[in-house]
Amino acid sequence: MSEERLFTISDLARDFDITLRTIRFYEEQGLIEPQREGRQRLFTHRDRARLKLILRGKRIGLALSEIREILDLYELARDEASQSLKLLQLLSDRKLQLEEQRQDIDAVLAEIDILESHCRQVIDTMTGKDATP
Amino acid sequence: MSEERLFTISDLARDFDITLRTIRFYEEQGLIEPQREGRQRLFTHRDRARLKLILRGKRIGLALSEIREILDLYELARDEASQSLKLLQLLSDRKLQLEEQRQDIDAVLAEIDILESHCRQVIDTMTGKDATP
DNA sequence: ACTTACTATTACGTTAACGTAAGCTCAAGT
DNA sequence: ACTTGAGCTTACGTTAACGTAATAGTAAGT
């Protein structure tokens, strides 16, 4: 059923627009664990998905150490549920943090809007918008 | 009218929960320019506001160099409007970026929700929720 | 006069997240 | 046989954003 197509390191580097070094570094840090065929790395769809999560995490400002925690949590959630309560706590912590970040972003966006309209006003005034019908 | 209350470096450090070193570093980088009384730094409300913006920028994952750009834009917007069109372009760029970031955050929040409900299910099953009325 | 509390400057140290260069392997094409 | 291309390891270099002394001035309290 699952043909399990495999990717080379360059495939992923191209797809996600990152360097080979970055991918190797992530492996070195234990964030991904590609198979080996001889010395060459081979990546599954699962590796690809993890890489995607890693990069998304980076974009919202998480450190690799934090991303590793989260990836571990995914694993944990897959395997057992013995520590699920602890996991829930961690998740809600993370949620709070993210919601704060979103508020920050919203605040910045609002300020940008204000700045923008200021600019427009100034430009309109200077180009004499209401003086030229 | 404006009594222009002044703040010491420790005031701001306490208020924003950062170190003295951090504040001095920001000055060193030209992000703030407190007055001096002798050697001692004295901060106005304006410095305070800038600091607040800096920290907010950091929280949403901007580099100090980018924050400086933005602060400069604020200045620019205050003074002249000659380059306002350029400014508008920069602002809309920044907006796009921020909106992407927000989408990332939303995606992560959604995933967390799913993980959470998975956890709850598992816990319910293990504690035999529907077996004990 | 002495200590305590802030503040300052100078300068080397640190951590994260890769960049970059050197040198080697191995399969494929010409 | 030779070169090109992709991949590998090892290892030193780099940048940002502060941390962490070490040392010193200075005003206020006792």
UniProtKB/TrEMBL annotation, chains A, B:
GO molecular function: DNA binding
The protein, known as: MerR family DNA-binding transcriptional regulator
Keywords tagged on the record: DNA-binding
InterPro entries per the UniProt record, alphabetical: DNA-bd_dom_put_sf, MerR-type_HTH_dom, MerR_fam
Residues covered by the HTH merR-type domain: 6-73
SMART domains recorded: HTH_MERR
